[in-house]
Amino acid sequence: MTAALRFDPIRLPEKCEQLRKEVRAFLAEEIAAGTFDPHKPNREDTDAPEFSRRVGAKGWLGMTWPKKYGGQERSFLERYVVTEEMRVANAPTRRFFVADRQSGPVLLKYAPEHIKMDILPRICRGEICFAIGMSEPNSGSDLFAAKTRATKTDGGYLINGTKIWTSSAHIADYMIAIFRTSQPTKENRRHGLTQFLVKMKQPGIKVNPIGQITGQYEFNEVVFTDFFVPDDHVLGEVDGAWKQATSELAYERSGPERFLETYYVLTELVRAVGPNPDTRSAEGIGRLVAQLHTMRRMSVSVAGMLQAGKEPVVEASIVKDIGTVWEQQLPHRVRDLAAFVEETATNRETLERQLDFAIKTAPKLTIQGGTTEVLRGIIARGLGLR
Amino acid sequence: MAESDNIVVETAEKIFADLADPQTINNDKKDSWQAPLWRALSEAGLPLSWVPDDLGGSGASLADGFALLNAAGRFAVAVPLAETMLAGWLLAQAKIASPEGEMTVLPASPKDRITLDADGSLSGRARGVPFAKAAKHFAVLAHGKDGVSIALVDAGKVRIESGLNVGYDHSDTVTLDKIQPVTLKAAPKGFDQTTMMLMGGVARSLQIAGALESMLDISVRYSNERVAFEKKISKFQAVQHNLARLAGESAAALAAATSAADAIANATRFDDEVYLEAASAKIRCAEAAEKGGAIAHQVHGAIGFTLEHILHRYSLRSLAWRDDFGSESHWAVELGKLVASRGADELWPLVASR
Q1: What region holds the Acyl-CoA dehydrogenase/oxidase C-terminal domain (chain B) (predicted)?
Q2: Is the predicted pLDDT of residue A2 greater than 80, yes or no?
Q3: Which residue of A has its CA nearest to B260?
Q4: In 3-state terms, what secondary structure has residue A156?
């Protein structure tokens, strides 16, 4: 037996291609109607509530979930197609993306039935937005250093403390967060954290926007002051959040969003060099396309593993490691290759504007959702080194 | 391509384990391992895996043959197994029966051309031909005024200038000067030198991916044995992260190569989509050979730089394989041109089609 991991060549089934056509047609209509401009990823306001509802009406949110909760009981591979087409089109997915990808699946697994019946159908309709409350001012990659306290009180818990770098908290209706319910033990420093469902937009929660180096305000500081969470909003085992976090990671880390965030600059480069590129441009584009194709085949393969009921945490970490490093370098490689593009290229201004934004976006890609260092630690553990 | 459910691969792995153990081979200064290994592979029908029964082969599927090449890469096998398989496959395209013994293919680079003259003779020069020195016959793709032909040529008729590639395997220059082939037939419609190079490139990609799997294995094992600064070097985070990157390169190479093999095994013709798969595999596997091999050497330190250690059997050979059937630079330029000619808005549909 070798240490190497297998990524079997999973192919998307035929029904996925029909779905892909539907998604492309829908996005083309939205673009024509002016909902968003696919050439402008640098929107100031990335929230699009009406678009979110229309995506929900198509049945493309919570696609893999049971029908009784508003889902479609479709496959992970079908969801994959919807996700990648939205991402490549630069569609404004902010309002529904987190709920669809990971908050919904967490609720499905750990929430009581009446909460599932209440919330999941609203996610499927594109009505509500989720945030993830993990990082704190002194706890980032080291998740288990979280200090925000949940103190037991009559019928629930009182929350005090601060979450930070919380994407979309300013528009979110709910947050899934981890809070400290007990102190860690000598034997297990991961003990003592509990996962909670938090209803946002209530007294006791203050959301303060934080400006990002892109000029956008998408992440926030969220301050809890004696904020009450009822008992039935506990998700899973009290003090046992550490057992629940890992299975989420395979969903969070292997998707097409982990290598397509700056993809638009590659399309625009191909447009700029035209149909007869010089050797330097052709070689540069060829290598980037080969790398992109390889990552996508790996990512589709992981989607196939998820569909088969596996928990490919190490495989997903490899996809995110390679994918995010690639999408981080992409704007710089495109800038290199565009250096000798004619001043008269018709899309030169578009490309320059996109590069400006992609270069500013790049540093976050290897940090958000698990840093490169954390991922390599997980891979090393998979190799039996830790 | 799971290893366990493939009888061809199981047979090959048993032969490799018995007769091509890298440490045993590395200790053998007289190459006395070569003849018994080739004999065992031939008796099992493996070199002619891709030749149908009625043309003298064992008629394995393309998929099984590709999996066999991946296994050969895991053992860094240094006999003309891949070359004979490719030669048999090429001859079978024109329904030419395969003879017994070692073969290789001409040309082995997209830049070289063999021409077919009006009198039925073949001329031209092919550089970097793997294992030409060991071949009893050549499978040749030639260009004539009526298009592409495929020929079987007796090795005694050609001139060979012997050379070694960076992995110490034969990589020779073969010159054909108005020689008469044993057999010559027209290639099937649509079959050209590019088809042959893509097929050869995917074969090399699978071998590189296999070599990287082994480099990862032996590097992980070594890091768990070697002690420095009073602990196993596998416990240093810098070493762990290097090995994690090697695992990533190995996984990427394997994914690209097996995906391309799957694409060819299921293709009816070599269209743009198969071209994307095959060219990408060669580009990405060559890049992985460079990056992954460098990490394997870094983990091993000085011992990995010695002739007595087996690491170089994998690392140098996988670097050498980059050059055969078109380098990654060649395929990147060609793939880049294809993408540009299709236009910017056709790039994503091409990628998503796979």
Answers
A1: 200-319
A2: no
A3: A9
A4: strand
